[in-house]
Specification:
There is one protein chain. With 220 residues, the chain is mostly helical. 65% of the residues lie in helices and 0% in strands. The protein contains 10 helices and no strands. 35% of the residues are buried. It has a single domain, classed as Orthogonal Bundle (Urease accessory protein UreF), CATH 1.10.4190. Helix 3 runs antiparallel to helix 4, helix 3 crosses helix 9 and helix 8 packs antiparallel against helix 10. It is globular, with a radius of gyration of 17 Å.
Length: 220
């Protein structure tokens, strides 16, 4: 029997589908330029061509080298109930984030997600992590909270990484579609192109870090 959880499927969908911290900036050239300063994610998204460039730069600068490894590593610690190690790793991860604006946005999204988990009194790990965030000992990065939700729902890390990557890219395209006036075929085409190598990249990443402990463990 799978381990019990008080989370509903709808709550999990909302948590896993939360907008990426960058998504709200798309369509605002000033906001995007400010948020992505120093991360090679310029030029501002103001055309279909610049949206394609943004998505490519996002994948090579943030998604593949930073965010997916962060979710993976957080999941390792959470799956082993290593709260102390998780918090220590979080502090090191802070040094890898190249933009104070992105760091602030990540923490804001992560803490908003954590508030939806406060009612899980029986989930001791969740409560201890929330308390650590409130005391200022933990950051509450959105990638860490995402890994926490994967653990709570007993979702495989591979499935979680694939879902995060594709939903994030889709969120960017949808956020930019209205201000850019993109047609549905254009949205589908740009998303298809941006996502074409994601699964392969994730498989290559996981093949180098495969661990038996990351398989779904059915609690009996």
């Amino acid at each position: 029997m799978s381990k019990p959880t008080l989370l509903t499927a709808q709550t999990a969908e909302q948590l896993l589908g939360e907008l990426h911290p960058l998504a709200e900036q798309l369509g605002s050239a000033e906001g995007l330029a400010s948020l992505t300063a120093g991360m090679a994610l310029v030029p501002p998204v103001e055309s279909l061509a610049s949206l394609r460039q943004f998505l490519q730069n996002y994948k090579t600068t943030l998604l593949l080298p930073l965010e997916l490894p962060a979710i993976y590593q957080a999941f390792v610690h959470i799956d082993r109930y290593e709260l102390r190690e998780l918090i220590l790793w979080e502090h090191g991860f802070a040094d890898q984030i190249m933009s104070p604006e992105l760091a602030a946005a990540s923490r804001r999204v992560g803490r908003n997600q954590l508030r939806r988990l406060r009612h899980l009194r029986a989930q001791r790990l969740v409560q201890r992590y929330i308390q650590a965030v409130e005391r200022g000992e933990a950051y509450g990065w959105h990638t860490v909270v995402y890994a926490l939700v994967l653990h709570l729902f007993s979702l495989p890390i591979r499935q979680g990484l694939v879902r995060y990557a594709h939903q994030t890219l889709r969120g960017f395209v949808e956020s930019a579609s209205h201000p850019l006036g993109l047609t549905q075929p254009e949205r589908h085409a740009v998303l298809r192109d941006a996502s074409s190598d994601v699964n392969q990249s994730i498989e290559a990443f996981l093949s180098k870090r495969a661990e038996p402990s990351l398989q779904i463990v059915q609690k009996r």
